[in-house]
TrEMBL record:
GO molecular function: formyl-CoA transferase activity; succinyl-CoA:(R)-citramalate CoA-transferase activity
Pfam families per record: CoA_transf_3
Annotated Gene3D superfamilies: Crotonobetainyl-coa:carnitine coa-transferase, domain 1, formyl-coa transferase, domain 3
Signal peptide residue numbers: none
Species of provenance: Geomicrobium halophilum
Keywords of this entry: Transferase
Major enzyme class: transferase
Descriptive protein name: Formyl-CoA transferase/succinyl-CoA--D-citramalate CoA-transferase
Superkingdom, natural source: Bacteria
Length: 401
């Protein structure tokens, strides 16, 4: 029997201090690929994420996902003993994740300079609304503010109404992804230098980084992007189209070759040669008229029939899924994108699968987020730091853990 491959990050230990979204999402990504992620919460003020979102039997349903594969310990960093104990943990760690307002760690005597003096190889991932420097650094900054000031909110929605938001906390998630990329880069660099460094990730900058050619559009072409609903101006056809059964499908056929295939699926191959539609530029100029013509075709067919025809001709298309559609979709099932995990109180718990998929050392979901605050105190403090049971009792009585 072949020996099972180790997970790629099994030799990495992470101390996660963050709350809610941006920091803990990074911790989840590390934990999914084998890192030992130790989630640290104050004994008197646990992460609000434990209660966020929908609940069942009084148990929050977001927490088991966000904190999966992590260990849970308690530690009061507002106390001198707690700060010293944290430094003990830092000596055994590779990464510290925090997403407090800038200056908080420094106030506790836990700046990077002080922590790296204990462990020069330490990498510190710092995620905040506006970064660790600059005139806005001390502002409170949630994901929604980053989405607004990063440029995303202004271009989201329809032009005849106010800006809207995406239905998820996309600013926090983008920041977590960029922070994780930065941290993995620093881990790689550490192999040659032997030294850690700070990863400074701002939510607004993470949003701004995915805003495509927003700035040169303005500075070089005097164009300010506005809300355009379900289209991108000049990119056609790429829209949602009503079907005969009163639903919508998405079609993306803006490349020349794909547009020709769409015309064949519609039974109008000659349309691909029409001067109004033959090129990307021409289709962009005649976008509205072209979309009307395509919707005349989709409106004559039920959604499934239209999608089958589009698939047969190799045209990118799809339904606008609800969560019910996602759960029932065989492609999601075949690629293990919904994985049942045993929850100690709720029984079988459906988890979103691990992304991305590695061919030889894929990530794993071993356990849901710890439902008991400080569940792994004994494991971490006794086994990792070698503290005695009597001393742990003393720390508990002093509200340090």
């Amino acid at each position: 029997m072949l020996e099972k491959e180790k997970l790629p990050l099994e030799d990495v230990r992470v101390l996660e201090l963050g709350t809610l979204l941006a920091g803990p999402f990074s911790g989840r990504l590390f934990a999914d690929f084998g890192a030992e992620v130790i989630k640290i919460e104050p004994p008197d003020k646990p992460d609000p994420m434990r209660k966020w979102g929908k609940s069942k039997d009084g148990i929050g349903l977001w927490w088991p996902v966000q904190s999966r594969n992590k260990k849970s310990i308690t530690l009061n960093l507002r106390t001198e003993k707690g700060q010293e104990l944290f430094k003990d943990l830092v000596r055994e760690a590779d990464i510290v994740i925090e997403n407090f307002r800038p200056g908080t760690m420094e106030k506790w005597g836990l700046s990077y300079a002080e922590l790296s003096a204990e462990n020069p190889r330490l990498i510190m991932m710092r995620t905040s609304g506006f970064g660790q420097t600059g005139p806005y650094k001390e502002r409170a900054g949630f994901g929604s503010i980053g989405e607004a000031m990063g440029g995303l909110r202004h271009v989201t929605g329809f032009p005849d109404r106010e800006p809207t938001r995406a239905g998820i906390s996309i600013g926090d998630t983008l920041a977590a992804l960029f922070a994780t990329i930065g941290c993995l880069t620093a881990l790689h660099e550490r192999k040659s230098s032997g030294r850690g460094q700070v990863i400074d990730t701002a939510i607004y900058e993470s949003v701004f980084s995915v805003m495509e050619s927003l700035v040169p559009d303005y500075l070089l072409a005097d164009y300010i992007r506005e809300r355009t609903g379900n289209i991108l101006p000049g990119v056609a056809p790429s829209n949602i189209y009503r079907t005969a059964d009163d639903t919508y499908i998405v079609i993306g056929a803006n490349a020349d070759a794909v547009f020709r295939r769409l015309c064949e699926a519609m039974g109008e191959p000659e349309l691909a040669e029409h001067p109004d539609y033959a090129t990307h530029e021409a289709r962009g100029k005649n976008q509205k008229v072209l979309d009307v013509r395509i919707e005349e075709w989709t409106s004559s067919l039920n959604a499934n029939v239209a999608l089958q025809r589009l698939e047969k001709h190799g045209v990118p298309s799809g339904m606008i899924y609800t969560v019910k559609d996602i759960v029932e979709d065989r492609h999601y099932q075949e690629r293990d994108m919904i994985i049942p995990i045993e929850h100690p109180e709720l029984g079988e718990f459906p988890m979103p699968g691990v992304v991305p998929k590695l061919s030889r050392t894929p990530g794993q979901i071993k356990q849901p987020g710890a439902s008991i605050l400080g569940e792994h105190n004994k494991d971490v403090y006794e086994k990792l730091l070698g503290l005695s049971e009597n001393y742990l009792t003393e720390l508990n009585e002093d509200n340090v853990i």
